[in-house]
Amino acid sequence: MTEKLSLTELQLIIRDSLYMSLPEMYWVIAEISELKENYAGHCYLELIEKHPDEKNIRARVKAIIWNKRYGFIKSFFENVTGEYLREGLKILVKTKVEYHELYGLSLIISDIDPAFTIGEMAMKRQLVIKKLEQEGVFSMNKDLDFPVLPQRIAIISSKNAAGYSDFINHITGNSYGYVFYTALIESAMQGAETEPGILNALDRIAENAHLFDLVVIIRGGGSLTDLSWFDSYNIAYHVTQFPLPVITGIGHDKDMSVTDMVANVALRTPTAAADFIIDAVNRFENHLIGMCTSIRDISLIIIAKNQTRVESSGMKLAHLTRIMISHIKDRISEKTIEIINIGKECTFKSGLIPANHITRLTSEIKSYLYIRESALTRTCKSLKTLTISSLETNGIRLEVLENSLNIMNPENVMRRGYTITSCNGKIIKKSDELTTDDIIDTQFSNGNVKSRVLEMKKR
Predict the structure, then answer these.
(1) Which residue, 98, 106, 339, 377, is the most exposed by fewest CB within 10 angstroms?
(2) What is the pLDDT of residue 217?
């Protein structure tokens, strides 16, 4: 062909050829890689298709939604999906191929199917769940023991999120007066920065895991597709591998993200997460109260039992002592009578007993009686000493137990100089909880004193 064409003529030939070859409308699946709205209300997009590896791009084309259609398409799509058109979203568009001699090839979009976008997100979510299950990590964070006393809380959220404010207000203003220590690790909670932000926050907490009892991921309300950011495999995998229990309060009543599914505890709202933690501390407090009550009851039973044993032992010892003394006296009397009878018999047989024999016999009898009486006296003293020692030992043990119980009595603690200070019915534990001119109530062991705060000094 020797005919020479101008560039415009060649562009027109290309345009006409495309119109002749592609005259119809086509439904095309693509991903939005760039989206801009101009002052006139037109929407300019760049659509791409990626390889199965989700990294390399295999096709790219420009697309336009004219302002006459864009307002309707955008409104309908957002109402159905709860998501706005944005980069990274996979869509099904109804389009016509157009070629312009100045702007080149582009697609003119006349409609977008929102059902396809919702189905695409659901399919990705199921693939993430299946992958986690195949790797055997799905329930690893759920298997961690929840802390008995969760007071040190790491929070992943945006500081401007309403859900974060609700959580903090709820947990610090709890009706029990419990004190919690919270640390906010900021992260974006929607949009493309959600995944890297949450992963970075989890890594920072993991480096200081010894400072915390658990992690709470808070987001608050949002659309269904806003929740799709938490269907990320990387976020879910990090949660399964995390060394501390993770609680989610992402803020959806009906749907659960993959992150919710793998977390130790998944709750619907930030305030529900706060209530769960407060209830855990309350259960621990009730357990302590129950243990104290059991210790007190057991102590009273032991004291009463030992007191009864001491009294019973005293009565038994006194009775046994009297029996032993009576028995010894009877034996002495028997021996005395026996000796007298033997003497009489000997005297009767001999007929005449010299005076010295009578004297010796009398002396031996007295000596024998003296020895037996001394032995009896020592036995009585020993029994008395042992009885008194046993009574004193058990008395001291009873006094120790009674003193221990008295020391635990709050009234005795207050008598030693301690007081309880409250403001508007709330017990004050730190000076930071008061402000100047606050009226405070100080409870002593013998009464109450109301005072006004004039000056605050920090130590």
Answers:
(1) 377
(2) 92
